[in-house]
């Protein structure tokens, strides 16, 4: 017998039948996935996926693998945070990968050193102007400015010309990639200052990813901005009738997504110590996939940053797991595709079942 | 004059060549519940849309709360104190009850512009109070609207209008899509509003409901108000006669 209790007005309800949060299912999927790799590893390879099996290293877990799992998804994860709030608000952002490329190129050219091994930096873009060895705040502000401008253009197009977000951000995707290539005529931009290189060093990408994830989880849960994101994605007409300024809100949402893509660009180019025009290709789709796997509904109104973070970990586990099983990278892509579609099918199925049950 | 909440004078709306509403003169007093009846296309919804600012009238004047008003949109009308429960419910499916009640007018702890921190506890408490006041029964405040029945949704929408000490509540066919029990629940809420002295305009096709709930019945036919009758002065057959045009009301209107 399940315990029933009484709500407002005396109608009884079964607290146990409350739908559990979607994040729980996603987390369960993560655990099952890790368990599967662990099992396959033990049976076929005689090695553990998760736990430390080496004599010369102390510790229960295979820390190196855990670090790699989260490190390799943290940069796309930063983009996924921005994409998550866009999708919750009922939109889509295809431009984030290209914004990463363009921002990395532009910001890196303001972060270069004057001399390499005693010779003038052969790659320095602005050495003639003396814009080398600038304090790290300059490339940072330039990057955030780039992301903000790109995001604002996305947002203004969507809010005021009423073209579908898919088209507006597709345009930005192509344009920003063009800017990335044009900026240095296709040449890579390298040799950043030590302070710029420190941003993406070691586990810094993970620290930045997790900090931003916590910040945006709080924003989406506890602020007006977050509430309005869910409201607009859920029922735009209702939100408008309730007096929410839809256009302003959308501009802000896309601007923030642009800034987060720019932060990802800084971390990525700092980590790689170079910026290339092809940086961030397909990142937009990986970011969307992380969100979708994490339970963010493409029709808007549902999802959370926590879900997206777990979704990104599922991504990381798949990549690491395939490497662990010594399978070709080609299989990763194929399985990634299957998982993305599977996650959406599962979500649809769960929603329909819940609707019938209610 | 001071107890008149809403007054319209020669309110007229043309859609191109279609005269959807012609010279409607209407008055609503404090605490009064008035039903608007009429056939489909008689001008009931058009009348409501002019008052709530959803559409702009062709000509005529509207006074609300003692002042002449020109609402440019539904939000202005709401800010002035006219709360409307629309046929298609204006609720966000993925939000819970307090979030829907306070949508667009959230209580905040710290004002940080768009990133203002929400006062969730206060909104929850105010929601509970509003639900008690309107006698709305909701099993669980924190479940989302998506998981509620049509009646519960309608109740949330009505509770929302009653939460904000509005000066006038307009309901456009609030029970059209509901079952028997749910209809009874909505009607109970309307009775509670009457006891609280909140004025109401009820657009309805349901004769029994209208005679149960309201003080006065206004009948629209072909864009004109053809009858304006106190409940005790009329009956169902009489109203039907006005709705179908078997009886024309010009004589009575002028006499009244």
UniProtKB/TrEMBL annotation, chain A:
The chain crosses the membrane at residues 26-45, 65-87, 99-116, 136-159, 166-183, 203-222, 251-269, 281-298, 305-323, 329-346. GO terms for cellular component: plasma membrane. InterPro entries: ABC_transp_permease. It is a multi-pass membrane protein. It comes from the Bacteria. The keyword Chaperone does not apply. Pfam families: BPD_transp_2. Keywords: Cell inner membrane, Cell membrane, Membrane, Transmembrane, Transmembrane helix, Transport. GO terms for molecular function: transmembrane transporter activity. It is found in: Cell membrane. This is ABC transporter permease. It comes from Mesorhizobium atlanticum.
TrEMBL record, chain B:
The keyword ATP-binding applies. The keyword RNA-binding does not apply. InterPro entries: AAA+_ATPase, ABC_carbohydrate_import_ATPase, ABC_transporter-like_ATP-bd, ABC_transporter-like_CS, P-loop_NTPase. One of its GO terms (molecular function) is ATP binding. This is Sugar ABC transporter ATP-binding protein. The lineage of its organism: Bacteria, Pseudomonadati, Pseudomonadota, Alphaproteobacteria, Hyphomicrobiales. SMART domains: AAA. Pfam families: ABC_tran. PANTHER family: CARBOHYDRATE TRANSPORT ATP-BINDING PROTEIN MG119-RELATED, SUGAR ABC TRANSPORTER ATP-BINDING PROTEIN. Residues 6-247 form the ABC transporter domain. Keywords: ATP-binding, Nucleotide-binding. Belongs to the ABC transporter superfamily. It comes from Mesorhizobium atlanticum.
């Amino acid at each position: 017998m399940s315990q029933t209790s009484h709500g407002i007005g005396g109608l009884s309800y079964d607290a146990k039948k409350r739908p559990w949060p979607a994040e729980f299912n996603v987390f369960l999927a993560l655990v099952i996935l890790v368990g599967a790799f662990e099992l396959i590893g033990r049976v076929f390879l005689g090695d553990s996926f998760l736990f430390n099996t080496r004599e010369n290293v102390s510790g229960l877990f295979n820390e190196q693998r855990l670090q790699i799992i989260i490190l390799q998804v943290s940069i796309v994860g930063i983009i996924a945070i921005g994409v998550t709030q866009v999708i919750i608000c009922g939109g889509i952002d295809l431009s984030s990968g290209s914004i990463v490329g363009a921002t990395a190129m532009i910001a890196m050219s303001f972060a270069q050193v004057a001399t390499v091994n005693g010779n003038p930096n052969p790659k320095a873009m602005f050495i003639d102007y003396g814009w080398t060895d600038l304090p790290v705040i300059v490339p940072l502000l330039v990057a955030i400015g780039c992301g903000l401008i790109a995001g604002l253009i996305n947002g203004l197009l969507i809010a005021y010309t009423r073209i579908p977000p898919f088209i507006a951000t597709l345009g930005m995707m192509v344009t920003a990639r063009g800017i990335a290539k044009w900026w240095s005529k296709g040449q890579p931009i390298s040799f950043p200052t030590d302070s710029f290189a420190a941003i993406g060093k070691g586990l810094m990408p993970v620290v930045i990813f997790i900090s931003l994830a916590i910040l945006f989880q709080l924003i989406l849960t506890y602020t007006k901005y977050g509430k309005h994101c869910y409201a607009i994605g859920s029922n735009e007409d209702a939100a408008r009738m309730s007096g929410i300024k839809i256009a302003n809100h959308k501009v802000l949402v896309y601007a923030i997504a642009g800034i987060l893509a720019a932060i990802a660009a800084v971390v990525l180019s700092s980590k790689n110590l170079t910026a290339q025009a092809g940086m961030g290709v397909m990142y937009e789709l990986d970011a969307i996939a992380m969100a979708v796997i994490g339970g963010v509904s493409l029709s808007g109104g549902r999802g959370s940053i926590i879900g997206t973070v777990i979704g990104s970990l599922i991504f990381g586990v798949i990549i690491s797991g395939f490497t662990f099983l010594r399978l070709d990278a080609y299989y990763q892509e194929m399985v990634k595709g299957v998982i993305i579609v599977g996650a959406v099918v599962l979500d649809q199925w769960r929603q329909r079942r819940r609707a019938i049950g209610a | 004059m001071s107890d008149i909440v809403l007054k319209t004078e020669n309110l007229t709306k043309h859609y191109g060549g279609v005269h959807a509403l012609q010279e409607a003169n209407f008055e609503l007093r404090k605490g009064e519940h008035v039903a608007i009846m009429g056939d489909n296309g008689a001008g009931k919804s058009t009348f409501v849309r002019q008052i709530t600012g959803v559409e702009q009238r062709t000509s005529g004047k509207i006074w609300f709360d003692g002042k002449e008003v020109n609402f440019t949109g539904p939000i202005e009308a709401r800010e002035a104190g006219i709360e409307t429960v629309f046929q298609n419910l204006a609720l966000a499916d993925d939000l819970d009850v307090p979030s829907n009640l306070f949508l667009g007018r959230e209580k905040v702890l710290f004002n940080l512009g768009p990133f203002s921190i929400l006062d969730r506890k206060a909104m929850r408490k105010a929601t509970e109070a509003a639900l008690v006041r309107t006698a709305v029964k909701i099993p669980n405040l924190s479940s989302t609207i998506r998981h509620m029945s049509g009646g519960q949704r309608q109740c949330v929408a009505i509770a929302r209008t009653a939460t904000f000490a509005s000066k006038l509540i307009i309901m456009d066919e609030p029970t059209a899509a509901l079952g028997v029990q749910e209809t009874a629940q909505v009607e109970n809420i309307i009775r509670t509003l009457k006891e609280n002295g909140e004025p109401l305009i009820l657009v309805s096709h349901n004769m029994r409901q209208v005679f149960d709930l309201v003080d006065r019945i206004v009948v629209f036919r072909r864009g004109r108000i053809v009858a304006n009758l106190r409940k005790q002065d009329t009956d169902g057959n009489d109203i039907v006669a006005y709705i179908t045009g078997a009886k024309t009301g010009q004589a009575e209107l002028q006499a009244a």
